[in-house]
């Protein structure tokens, strides 16, 4: 299995790049944000709970997120691997993922961290709100809260993978294809 963590602040381009990478490598894309939004759309119990956090720009509690992620992974038989997009977002989630994959004799091959300056992120989210209808993209205060949650709770996840020599930083500014190429180059260096 080739398991990758795609990492970056809100608006870094994780979703766009995931689509390009799964096409090339036949991996399964698991975006915790997408799964939460699917549940919100279908008005499930999980969706109602997640919405109460997402609408404030807060993280959904670890236990809920970890259990959901595990059950999504377990839906797949003999997967080639996964791209985890938006997960892990806390150190607790990162530790849980390592443990969970170890039970399957698998591991995270690497973290691909897209780096984009904060001004550019705010501008991208403002534009995305117009098309996506995402309520958490529409309000500058909620965006600011998400960026601050990212800096305080999520950025330490980079330190966690760096300590395992698995952190690969990619410049998230530039053309979409150019960034995809840089990611592919990194993935090639990770393959056995
Ligand atoms: P973005 O990367 O633009 O912030 P996502 O679609 O990844 O958007 O996530 C949207 C929201 O879903 C987050 O702001 C958070 O509230 C919730 N969420 C997504 N993934 C996680 C996670 N791993 N842990 C906790 N909350 C999460």
From TrEMBL:
Catalytic activity: AMP + ATP = 2 ADP
Keywords, comma-separated and alphabetical: ATP-binding, Cytoplasm, Kinase, Nucleotide biosynthesis, Nucleotide-binding, Transferase
Record bears the keyword Transferase: yes
Chain residues that bind AMP: 32, 37, 58-60, 86-89, 93, 134, 146
Subcellular location: Cytoplasm
Residues annotated to bind ATP: 11-16, 128, 174
Top EC class, one word: transferase
Region described as NMP: 31-60
Record GO biological process: AMP salvage
GO CC, alphabetical: cytoplasm
EC number, UniProt record: 2.7.4.3
Alphabetized CDD domains for the sequence: ADK
Pathway: Purine metabolism; AMP biosynthesis via salvage pathway; AMP from ADP: step 1/1
Superkingdom of origin: Bacteria
GO molecular function annotation: AMP kinase activity; ATP binding
InterPro entries to which the protein is assigned, alphabetical: Adenylat/UMP-CMP_kin, Adenylat_kinase_CS, P-loop_NTPase
Protein purpose: Catalyzes the reversible transfer of the terminal phosphate group between ATP and AMP. Plays an important role in cellular energy homeostasis and in adenine nucleotide metabolism.
Subunit structure of this chain's protein: Monomer.
Family that this chain belongs to: Belongs to the adenylate kinase family.
Domain comment quoted from the record: Consists of three domains, a large central CORE domain and two small peripheral domains, NMPbind and LID, which undergo movements during catalysis. The LID domain closes over the site of phosphoryl transfer upon ATP binding. Assembling and dissambling the active center during each catalytic cycle provides an effective means to prevent ATP hydrolysis.
Protein name: Adenylate kinase
Organism whose genome encodes this protein: Brumimicrobium oceani
Gene field: adk
């Amino acid at each position: 299995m080739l398991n990758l963590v795609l990492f970056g602040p809100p608006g870094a381009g994780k979703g766009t790049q995931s689509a390009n990478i799964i096409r090339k490598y036949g991996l399964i894309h698991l975006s915790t944000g997408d799964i939460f939004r699917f549940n919100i759309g279908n008005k499930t119990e999980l969706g109602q709970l997640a919405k109460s956090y997402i609408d404030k720009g807060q993280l959904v509690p670890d236990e809920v997120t970890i259990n959901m992620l595990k059950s999504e992974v377990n839906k797949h038989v003999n997967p080639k691997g996964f791209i985890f997009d938006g997960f892990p977002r806390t150190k607790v989630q990162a530790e849980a993922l390592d443990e969970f994959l170890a039970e399957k004799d698998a591991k995270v091959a690497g973290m691909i961290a897209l780096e984009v300056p904060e001004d550019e992120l705010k501008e991208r989210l403002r534009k995305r709100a117009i098309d996506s209808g995402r309520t958490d993209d529409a309000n500058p205060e909620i965006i600011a809260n998400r960026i601050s949650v990212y800096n305080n709770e999520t950025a330490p996840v980079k330190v966690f993978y760096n300590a395992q020599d698995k952190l690969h930083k990619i410049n998230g500014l530039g053309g979409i294809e150019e960034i995809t190429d840089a990611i592919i180059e990194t993935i090639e260096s990770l393959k056995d």
